Predict the 3D structure of the following.
Amino acid sequence: MDNTPSNFDKTTWDQLPDFLDQLPEPVQLNIWCDPEASPAEAEGVKLAQTLNEQFQNIDFIQLPRRINFHYYPVFGVMGVGEEEAIDFGVRIIGLPTGYQMTSLIAGIQCVSFRGMTSEARSRITLQKLKQDVSVEVISSAEDEGGAIMAQTAFNMAVASPKLRSYLIMGDQFSDALLRYSVSYLPHTVIDGRVHIDGVVDEKELLEQIAKAIEPAG
Protein backbone atom coordinates (compact mmCIF):
# COMPACT_ATOMS: atom_id res chain seq x y z
CA MET A 1 0.00 0.00 0.00
CA ASP A 2 1.29 3.45 -0.91
CA ASN A 3 1.34 5.70 2.19
CA THR A 4 2.74 8.73 0.43
CA PRO A 5 0.61 11.84 1.15
CA SER A 6 -1.47 12.84 -1.87
CA ASN A 7 0.11 16.31 -2.03
CA PHE A 8 3.47 14.73 -2.88
CA ASP A 9 3.96 13.76 -6.49
CA LYS A 10 6.40 10.91 -7.06
CA THR A 11 9.15 13.19 -8.38
CA THR A 12 9.00 15.40 -5.30
CA TRP A 13 8.95 12.40 -2.97
CA ASP A 14 11.97 10.87 -4.71
CA GLN A 15 13.91 14.12 -4.32
CA LEU A 16 13.15 14.66 -0.62
CA PRO A 17 16.14 12.67 0.70
CA ASP A 18 18.47 15.10 -1.09
CA PHE A 19 17.03 17.94 1.03
CA LEU A 20 16.11 16.27 4.30
CA ASP A 21 18.44 13.33 4.94
CA GLN A 22 21.37 15.45 6.14
CA LEU A 23 19.72 18.13 8.27
CA PRO A 24 22.35 19.56 10.69
CA GLU A 25 19.87 20.17 13.53
CA PRO A 26 16.64 18.30 14.34
CA VAL A 27 13.32 19.92 13.52
CA GLN A 28 9.91 19.45 15.11
CA LEU A 29 6.76 19.86 13.05
CA ASN A 30 3.85 21.06 15.17
CA ILE A 31 0.49 20.82 13.45
CA TRP A 32 -2.58 22.45 14.97
CA CYS A 33 -5.72 20.86 13.54
CA ASP A 34 -8.70 18.57 13.95
CA PRO A 35 -8.34 15.67 11.50
CA GLU A 36 -12.07 14.98 11.81
CA ALA A 37 -12.99 18.52 10.78
CA SER A 38 -11.73 18.62 7.19
CA PRO A 39 -9.87 16.55 4.58
CA ALA A 40 -7.07 19.15 4.50
CA GLU A 41 -6.44 18.74 8.23
CA ALA A 42 -6.43 14.95 7.97
CA GLU A 43 -4.01 15.16 5.05
CA GLY A 44 -1.82 17.58 7.01
CA VAL A 45 -1.44 15.06 9.82
CA LYS A 46 -0.59 12.35 7.30
CA LEU A 47 2.03 14.60 5.72
CA ALA A 48 3.73 15.47 9.02
CA GLN A 49 3.58 11.89 10.24
CA THR A 50 5.09 10.58 7.01
CA LEU A 51 8.00 13.04 7.18
CA ASN A 52 8.57 12.00 10.80
CA GLU A 53 8.66 8.33 9.84
CA GLN A 54 10.94 8.80 6.84
CA PHE A 55 13.52 11.26 8.15
CA GLN A 56 15.49 10.80 11.33
CA ASN A 57 15.83 14.52 12.17
CA ILE A 58 12.14 15.41 11.78
CA ASP A 59 9.84 15.00 14.78
CA PHE A 60 6.08 15.51 14.75
CA ILE A 61 3.47 16.61 17.29
CA GLN A 62 -0.24 16.97 16.60
CA LEU A 63 -1.94 19.68 18.66
CA PRO A 64 -5.63 20.67 18.97
CA ARG A 65 -7.13 23.70 17.25
CA ARG A 66 -6.57 27.02 19.01
CA ILE A 67 -9.19 29.74 19.36
CA ASN A 68 -6.87 32.45 18.00
CA PHE A 69 -6.20 30.59 14.72
CA HIS A 70 -8.62 31.33 11.88
CA TYR A 71 -7.51 28.76 9.29
CA TYR A 72 -6.40 25.15 9.52
CA PRO A 73 -4.22 23.18 9.40
CA VAL A 74 -1.42 25.33 10.85
CA PHE A 75 2.13 24.01 10.59
CA GLY A 76 4.79 25.35 12.95
CA VAL A 77 8.39 24.49 12.07
CA MET A 78 10.25 24.39 15.36
CA GLY A 79 13.79 23.80 16.51
CA VAL A 80 14.44 21.08 19.08
CA GLY A 81 15.83 22.24 22.42
CA GLU A 82 17.04 20.24 25.41
CA GLU A 83 13.74 20.60 27.27
CA GLU A 84 11.21 22.05 24.79
CA ALA A 85 10.73 23.11 21.20
CA ILE A 86 12.32 26.37 20.02
CA ASP A 87 9.78 28.56 18.26
CA PHE A 88 11.46 30.54 15.48
CA GLY A 89 8.19 32.01 14.25
CA VAL A 90 7.93 29.94 11.06
CA ARG A 91 4.32 29.09 10.15
CA ILE A 92 2.49 27.63 7.17
CA ILE A 93 -1.26 28.27 7.16
CA GLY A 94 -3.15 25.67 5.19
CA LEU A 95 -2.12 22.41 3.56
CA PRO A 96 1.02 23.01 1.45
CA THR A 97 0.44 21.73 -2.08
CA GLY A 98 2.06 22.29 -5.46
CA TYR A 99 4.90 24.80 -5.31
CA GLN A 100 4.25 25.33 -1.60
CA MET A 101 5.55 21.85 -0.82
CA THR A 102 8.86 23.53 -1.70
CA SER A 103 8.06 26.15 0.93
CA LEU A 104 7.58 23.48 3.59
CA ILE A 105 10.94 21.96 2.69
CA ALA A 106 12.48 25.44 2.77
CA GLY A 107 10.98 26.11 6.20
CA ILE A 108 12.43 22.86 7.56
CA GLN A 109 15.85 23.69 6.11
CA CYS A 110 15.79 27.29 7.37
CA VAL A 111 15.13 26.13 10.94
CA SER A 112 17.60 23.24 10.78
CA PHE A 113 20.37 25.45 9.36
CA ARG A 114 19.38 28.24 11.80
CA GLY A 115 18.89 30.75 8.97
CA MET A 116 22.51 30.52 7.85
CA THR A 117 21.49 30.35 4.18
CA SER A 118 20.57 34.06 4.26
CA GLU A 119 23.15 36.77 3.75
CA ALA A 120 25.36 37.60 6.73
CA ARG A 121 24.56 41.32 6.41
CA SER A 122 20.85 40.56 6.56
CA ARG A 123 21.24 38.42 9.69
CA ILE A 124 23.15 41.21 11.43
CA THR A 125 20.49 43.76 10.50
CA LEU A 126 17.67 41.50 11.67
CA GLN A 127 19.33 40.84 15.02
CA LYS A 128 19.11 44.58 15.70
CA LEU A 129 15.30 44.70 15.42
CA LYS A 130 13.85 46.32 18.52
CA GLN A 131 10.14 45.69 17.94
CA ASP A 132 7.98 42.80 16.84
CA VAL A 133 7.13 42.54 13.16
CA SER A 134 5.12 40.04 11.12
CA VAL A 135 5.66 39.08 7.48
CA GLU A 136 2.72 37.35 5.78
CA VAL A 137 3.26 35.82 2.35
CA ILE A 138 -0.01 35.00 0.57
CA SER A 139 0.48 32.44 -2.15
CA SER A 140 -1.09 29.40 -3.84
CA ALA A 141 -0.23 25.93 -5.07
CA GLU A 142 0.50 27.29 -8.56
CA ASP A 143 2.52 30.33 -7.44
CA GLU A 144 6.22 29.59 -7.89
CA GLY A 145 7.16 33.09 -6.69
CA GLY A 146 5.44 32.44 -3.38
CA ALA A 147 7.93 29.71 -2.57
CA ILE A 148 10.79 32.15 -3.17
CA MET A 149 9.27 34.80 -0.91
CA ALA A 150 8.42 32.22 1.77
CA GLN A 151 12.01 31.01 1.95
CA THR A 152 13.26 34.58 2.38
CA ALA A 153 10.68 35.30 5.09
CA PHE A 154 11.42 32.04 6.91
CA ASN A 155 15.15 32.76 6.95
CA MET A 156 14.46 36.21 8.40
CA ALA A 157 12.25 34.79 11.14
CA VAL A 158 14.95 32.35 12.19
CA ALA A 159 17.52 35.18 12.23
CA SER A 160 15.47 37.43 14.52
CA PRO A 161 13.37 36.61 17.61
CA LYS A 162 11.37 39.78 16.84
CA LEU A 163 10.14 38.63 13.42
CA ARG A 164 7.46 36.06 12.67
CA SER A 165 6.76 34.74 9.19
CA TYR A 166 3.57 33.24 7.80
CA LEU A 167 2.91 31.54 4.49
CA ILE A 168 -0.84 31.61 3.84
CA MET A 169 -2.39 29.33 1.22
CA GLY A 170 -4.62 31.93 -0.42
CA ASP A 171 -6.19 29.45 -2.83
CA GLN A 172 -7.57 27.56 0.19
CA PHE A 173 -8.73 30.63 2.14
CA SER A 174 -10.35 33.14 -0.21
CA ASP A 175 -11.28 35.48 2.64
CA ALA A 176 -7.54 36.01 3.23
CA LEU A 177 -7.35 37.37 -0.32
CA LEU A 178 -10.31 39.65 0.32
CA ARG A 179 -8.91 40.87 3.61
CA TYR A 180 -5.87 42.39 1.93
CA SER A 181 -7.49 43.07 -1.49
CA VAL A 182 -5.02 40.70 -3.14
CA SER A 183 -5.08 40.71 -6.92
CA TYR A 184 -1.60 39.35 -7.64
CA LEU A 185 0.43 36.52 -6.14
CA PRO A 186 2.66 36.33 -4.28
CA HIS A 187 1.45 39.17 -2.09
CA THR A 188 3.46 40.04 1.01
CA VAL A 189 2.09 42.06 3.91
CA ILE A 190 4.40 43.49 6.58
CA ASP A 191 2.71 44.33 9.88
CA GLY A 192 -0.58 44.83 8.04
CA ARG A 193 0.74 48.14 6.68
CA VAL A 194 3.21 47.65 3.84
CA HIS A 195 2.11 45.59 0.83
CA ILE A 196 4.39 44.07 -1.81
CA ASP A 197 3.26 42.41 -5.03
CA GLY A 198 5.51 39.85 -6.65
CA VAL A 199 9.00 38.67 -5.78
CA VAL A 200 11.60 40.97 -4.22
CA ASP A 201 15.09 40.13 -3.03
CA GLU A 202 16.26 39.97 0.57
CA LYS A 203 17.64 43.51 0.53
CA GLU A 204 14.37 45.00 -0.71
CA LEU A 205 12.32 43.05 1.81
CA LEU A 206 14.55 44.35 4.62
CA GLU A 207 14.02 47.90 3.38
CA GLN A 208 10.26 47.39 3.36
CA ILE A 209 10.37 45.98 6.89
CA ALA A 210 12.24 49.11 8.02
CA LYS A 211 9.53 51.23 6.36
CA ALA A 212 6.77 49.28 8.08
CA ILE A 213 8.17 49.73 11.58
CA GLU A 214 9.37 53.32 11.33
CA PRO A 215 7.41 55.78 13.52
CA ALA A 216 4.43 57.45 11.83
CA GLY A 217 4.64 61.14 11.09
Notes: Residues 23-213 form a domain with the Glutaredoxin fold (CATH 3.40.30.80). Strands lie at 27-32, 58-63, 74-80, 85-93, 133-139, 163-169, 187-190, 194-197. DSSP finds seven helices and eight strands in the chain. The CA atoms of residues 53 and 59 lie 8 Å apart.
